[in-house]
Amino acid sequence: EVQLVESGGGLAQPGGSLRVSCAASGFTFSSHSMIWVRQAPGKGLEWLSYITTGSHIDYADSVKGRFTISRDNAKNSLYLQMNSLRAEDTAVYYCARIDYGGFFEYWGHGTLVTVSS
Amino acid sequence: LVLTQSPATLSLSPGERATLSCRASQSISSNLAWYQQKPGQAPRLLIYDASNRATGIPARFSGSGSGTDFTLTISSLEPEDFAVYYCQQRYNWPPFTFGGGTEVEIK
Q1: Which residues of chain A lie closer than 8 angstroms to B101, CB-CB?
Q2: Cis omega (within 30 of 0) on the bond before B43?
Q3: How far is B73 from B96, CA to CA, in rounded Å?
Q4: A110 vs B contacts (CB less than 8 Å)
Q5: Can you give the pLDDT at residue B94?
Q6: How confident is the model at residue A41 (pLDDT cuts 50, 70, 90)?
Q7: Residues A33, A101: contact at Cβ < 8 Å?
Q8: Measuring CA to CA, which residue among A22, A42, A33, A29 is closest to residue A93?
Q9: How confident is the model at residue A19 (pLDDT cuts 50, 70, 90)?
Q10: Euclidean distance between CA atoms A103 and A78, whole angstroms
Q11: How far is CA B43 from CA A7, A34, A70, in A?
């Protein structure tokens, strides 16, 4: 069974940093591209970043230069390092597997990041 | 590339037919998916490539359209279908664009 489990969310100060993780199981992690998506309270879905099997990376303009995506295939894990956090980064952060050439069948349950002083 | 969903809210009763719309600001061929999201849960893939049901999705969910206009139809609403629905394109990525969502609420 494919499982994605996020962790690392919590409270961060404006201007601070946080790293969220996504532990993958039930599939060959190294063979799949992955993404991070977030959802601010009461709002819609926003794609943040993706990383391919060959570690090609891209970011949404809203987080470019502040967030860094990475993966550790040996640990079956995906990461999102978030720096220079702002109040508007408060959201539930989801990891998901890219399937069907660009759609997302498997998602984690999400981890809540709150940026507040 | 912008995806615009309408209506924002759809008020219907169980057993009724739901028709949700997603319009792309430029042609995206059939590169569209639909997701369902319930409160406190992650999105669930319903439809990919505009009209293909994902694994385990009931036949009452169907998708249609190509180019710029797409429709998600729920033929007869079950109580568990009241949720928010999002469309998403993969034609021109990155970015992976989502629509703003349509809430299907109980009338």
Answers
A1: 44-45
A2: no
A3: 23
A4: 42
A5: 84
A6: very high
A7: no
A8: A22
A9: very high
A10: 18
A11: 18, 15, 23
CA dist., res. A31 & res. A66, Å (int)? 27
Q: Are A36 and A81 in contact (CB under 8 A)?
A: no
Question: Is a pLDDT exceeding 90 seen at residue B32?
Answer: yes
pLDDT for B93 beyond 90: no
Q: What is the DSSP string of A26-81?
A: SS-GGGS-EEEEEE-TT--EEEEEEE-TT--EEE-TTTTTTEEEEEEGGGTEEEEE
How confident is the model over A48-73, as a mean pLDDT? 96
- Under 8 Å between Cβ of A13 and A115: yes
pLDDT tens per residue, range A73-101: 999 999 999 999 999 999 999 999 999 88
Residues in chain B: 107
Instruction: Please judge whether B45 and A109 are an interchain contact, meaning their C-beta atoms are less than 8 angstroms apart.
Output: no
